[in-house]
Each structure stands twice: as C-alpha cells, then as structure tokens.
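Entry type: protein chain
Record version: 2
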Amino acid sequence: MAEMIGPASATHTEATLTEAIKKTWPSGVDRPHHIVAVQVNNGAGFSFGRTLDAIVFNTWPSEGLTLHGLEIKCSRSDLRRELQDTRKFAEFAPYLDHFSIVAPKEIVSKLEIPDKWGLYHPTDDGRLRAARKPLMLHTEGRREQMDRSLAAAFARALVQRSLDGSFARDEYARGYAAGESRTAEEVARAEQNAETLRQAIAQFEEESGVRIDRWNGARIGGAVKLVLDGNVLHHRLSHAGSLRELGERMIKLAGEFEVLSAALEATDG
C-alpha cells in the first residue's frame, strides 16, 4: 500500500521537530556523546547566507567524530523546494559526513529523497526514529578535518543557544527528570527496607510472644543479649572449681533471670 502523503503536518512545527532533535541526540554537560547546534550558518563571515536547521557532532572517536547535518521539513511544498534546489545541501555537504531530512511521515516518503540521505520521523515520545539511516556522503569516507569557518559558525550557534537560555532550560529539565528518577529509586529502597524491618519485628513478636510497642532501651536489649549468648546454664554452671564457686554462679544466674523476667513483664505491660 502506498504511503499517504499530505500537504503539511497538522501536529508538528519547526520548533517541535527541533526539540525532537535535541532529545534524540542529547548534549548533556558531562562528557556528552553528541553536541547539537541549531541554526548553523555555512560559514562565519557575512557572505555565508545558508543556514542548516541542526548539526549533530558525534564526540566519540570510536564512532568517527562525525558531523551529521539535519534539515527540518514540515510541509510538502518546503520539501519539494529542497529536492528541486539542492544548493543548500551542496554548500554544506563538503563539510558533513551525513545528511538527513527530519519530517513527519505524512509528508514525505523515503523513496523520494536521494539515496545517501537519511530520513527521520517524530515519534509519540517526542524523539525521532530513523525511517532510513544516512549513508556516508563521500566515497573517500568521513571528513578528516573540520573547516575552521564552519567550526566558528558551529561554535557561534552553540553560544547563541546558551545565551538565549534554551540550553540552560534543557539541561535543567534533564537534571530535574534525573533527580526525580533518583529520588523515586531512593524512596522505593527505603520503603523496601522499612517493610523488611516490619516483617522482622512481626516474626520476633510471633516467635517470642513479646509485644514490642516501644523499644525499652537497655533492659530489653540486655534480656535479648542474655538469650542470644547461647546455653546459659551450660556456660554459667559448668567447670565450677568447687561447690562454693558453683553456688556463687547460681546466685548470679538467678539475678540475671530476675532482670529478664522484669524486662518481659515491662514489655507486656
């Protein structure tokens, strides 16, 4: 079945698709994988009048340090002009490694665009999905050097974005979302730990028959420790050197049992 192509998108604008580019290739501030500059001129001087909607700089050497140009199209007429007049692409192409169209799927088919161009469509989560990934523009491979004039234009676009506050807002939003996620995880861990303690207390009360309404400090702690010491009679009464020593140990043990009994009575009360 042929794709239904309409005159324009009813839900997407240049602004919404620009945001989708930023979300798909997030810059971040801590060793970013990508750096995204929007509205980049094809050079630094006044004679450079072409502007590309976005350039994504992949900063990972393992992935080639590539430059990916992106052009947004929101209507059939705008797309048609781009395909009929490729001078903008031609002026940027010598400095780029990849080039793609970003457009709603209802206005463009991947069969319409040149073979090496990529095509990205917006998704419901505010990002982009590749209908077709771009191929390397140059037969000799990626560009080994970045043109200084384009580098200056790229840097200017980044500075302009930071000055107008959009970059700060983007980073704040990302940081806020990350903070909310970490907080939710910490709350979940705390609730899990609290539930583990509640289960342990319930099991103690069931096994011991002692109701814990409040922890009565050293008295109950001492009583529990006395029990946990092991076989009290064996440890306290064995190996007595004489009847006198055995009697003294029994008197001391009786006193300890009185402490334990008082602690349990206080707890029951």
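Comment: The first strand starts at residue 34 and ends at 41.
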